[in-house]
């Protein structure tokens, strides 16, 4: 990989998991990283981990809830102040699981607000800085849930499908300004966000049965692809949504029915309306 000296990257959800993995890969190649997230404690631990691996790395943290536009704008300003802001990783997000008919409006708005609107705000406020820097790359962390249905994860699937169209729109509209936008689609990767899925062996085994490579992923598996898409090595790639999933997306999405039935019993299925 080419050096990233003098360049900076904003990484939302950067304090742990895939976001932290992306930060480690950028820092290894000389880029300054700004870790953005809601937990100052997690951000501090993440920054310490990056510095431990790359002692000369310039690492900054900024508390940022991606659903708060003012905080997102400030995070982008921080990234622009520590180097030539050319890289943005829209990684912040979370999922929820439950029957469609019991999904509350608050649950729906929470997932869509963070995963889709939060990514929109991140890209919106990063773009002027990327253009001012002579161009740059946005990478959004999507999911195999964008192209494949996941039973009982409707809000999450819809948020990631929307995220991928957002990436394509940004790539189409901003390419002439030197801004590239792509997405990566991780499969099952053990992180704080997937603890619930990983705790149920029947679900993990179903995931593995849909993967030709039959293993769960790692932060590094995903971060290596993100790093490639951030740099000059991928300068003719934009508007793409690329799977890093052990081949999962050539089969079907996972079936969470056993877990839902274990937790909810008959409430998994909607009751019939009374005549």
The helix-and-strand class reads alpha/beta
The count of helical stretches stands at 9
Please state the overall shape, judged from the principal axes of the Cα atoms.
globular
How many E-type strands?
Answer: 7
What's the CATH H-level homologous superfamily?
NAD(P)-binding Rossmann-like Domain
Main CATH class: Alpha Beta
Total count of domains: 1
Radius of gyration: 19 Å
Strand-residue proportion: 15-25%
Protein model, in words:
With 275 residues, the chain is of the alpha/beta class. It has one domain (7-267): NAD(P)-binding Rossmann-like Domain (Rossmann fold, 3-Layer(aba) Sandwich). It has nine helices and seven strands. It has helices spanning 17-28, 40-53, 69-81, 105-132, 154-174, 195-198, 201-209, 219-230, 257-264, and strands at 7-12, 32-37, 59-63, 84-90, 136-141, 179-186, 241-244. The protein has a seven-stranded parallel β-sheet, sandwiched between helices. Strand 4 (84-90), helix 4 and strand 5 form a beta-alpha-beta unit. Helix 1 runs parallel beside helix 2 and helix 1 (17-28) packs across helix 8. The termini are far apart. The mean pLDDT is 96.
């Amino acid at each position: 990989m080419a050096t990233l000296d003098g360049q900076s990257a904003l990484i939302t959800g950067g304090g742990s998991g895939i976001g932290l993995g992306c930060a480690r890969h950028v820092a290894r190649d000389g880029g300054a990283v700004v870790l953005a997230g809601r937990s100052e404690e997690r951000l501090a631990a993440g920054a310490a981990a990056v510095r431990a691996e790359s002692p000369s790395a310039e690492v900054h943290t900024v508390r940022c809830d991606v659903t708060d536009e003012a905080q997102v704008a400030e995070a982008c300003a921080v990234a622009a102040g520590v180097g030539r802001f050319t890289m943005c990783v829209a990684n912040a997000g979370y999922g929820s699981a439950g029957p469609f008919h019991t999904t509350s409006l608050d649950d729906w708005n929470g997932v869509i607000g963070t995963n889709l609107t939060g990514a929109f705000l991140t890209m919106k406020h990063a773009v002027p800085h990327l253009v001012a820097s002579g161009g740059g790359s946005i990478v959004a962390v999507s999911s195999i849930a964008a192209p494949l249905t996941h039973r009982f994860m409707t809000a999450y699937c819809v948020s990631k499908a929307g995220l991928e169209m957002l990436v394509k729109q940004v790539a189409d509209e901003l390419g002439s300004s030197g801004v590239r936008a792509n997405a990566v689609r991780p499969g099952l990767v053990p992180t704080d966000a997937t603890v619930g899925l990983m705790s149920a062996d029947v679900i993990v085994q179903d995931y593995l049965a849909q993967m030709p490579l039959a293993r769960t992923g790692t932060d590094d598996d995903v971060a290596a692809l993100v790093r490639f898409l951030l740099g000059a090595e991928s300068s003719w790639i934009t508007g793409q949504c690329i799977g890093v999933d052990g081949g999962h997306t050539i089969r079907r999405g996972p079936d969470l029915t056993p877990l839902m039935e274990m937790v909810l019993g008959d409430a998994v299925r909607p009751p019939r309306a009374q005549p």
